[in-house]
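Figure 2 data, in text form.
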Amino acid sequence: MLHAEWPKHTIEGLVAEKGGWVNAHMHIDRAYTVSPQNWPLTNASLQEKWDYVDAMKRDATVAEIKARMHQAVELQLAQGARALCSFLDCDSVVRDRALIAADAIRNEYKSDITIVYASQPLKGVINPDEYAWFRRSAEFVDIIGGLPERDERDFGKGEMHVDRLIELALEHDKPLHIHADQMNDPAQRDTEMILRKTREAGLVGRVALIHCLSLAAQPAEHRQMIYNMMREDEVSVITCPSAWIDSRRNETLAPTHNAATPVDELMRAGVNVALGTDNIQDIYKPFSTGDMSRELWMMIESNHLYGTEQFSMDAVAAVASTNGMQAIYAHVKSARRL
């Protein structure tokens, strides 16, 4: 008897038994925006893409953004997802149009899927005009989102970026989701900086970090210290495997590792790990399909999570389902409507 589909069917069956997929990190307001016109931009660096999306955002109407979000949510429903968390841009370029569209989408699908929103400070929070827009988004979203690398690049103020996120999280009594250590670089230690600041602020059980790739490039002793802090402070980590498989070769020396969140070590240390698809068919990830099964497969393969005694299939399936519900704080009350 052939067993070619047994592993896939088994793990997906376990996800279904746990209630279905939970996509813990998306950007549905920018989904499906790659085109023949902007295709040359797909080969740019991450930092360049932060600004290259301005043209698309500036011209987008609420109706267009809503249509993209509708397609992305329908895709998740077709897979059997029960919840998703999407970051939303709100800045001087797109203004509040993504928030308006998101409000309509959540109302439309309120009986079908749990939708949680986080703020995306793509323009940073140091510039006064951008910070004003970010504060506006904080009133609407469920989660305060962060991208300290943006203000570190522009002003050398990544730490101040995190300080302002924490201030807003405390002011609005909302959890934090922060993009951290995205560059797969041993010199980048944003995860440690964020953990120390959120610990000092008393945000235990209120923080999730997204990606943490550079953590895998650190020495083992440092990694273990970070895992211990995460476990003690009940910090979740959200991995989006296909988002960073394109990490580029360079001559930087680091412990041998792949371009993936160290999920195996995180799970072994008792850290809650969740799964997301990140960008869908935009200039960041033009070939990403938003397929949770694909992301789970990449996570399993890149971390050797083959359902052994150490990493049971049930525990691996939880990353794509119940762990995600914990990471996106699906129990939180919906934020104020626009």
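Caption note: The chain has one domain: 19-327.
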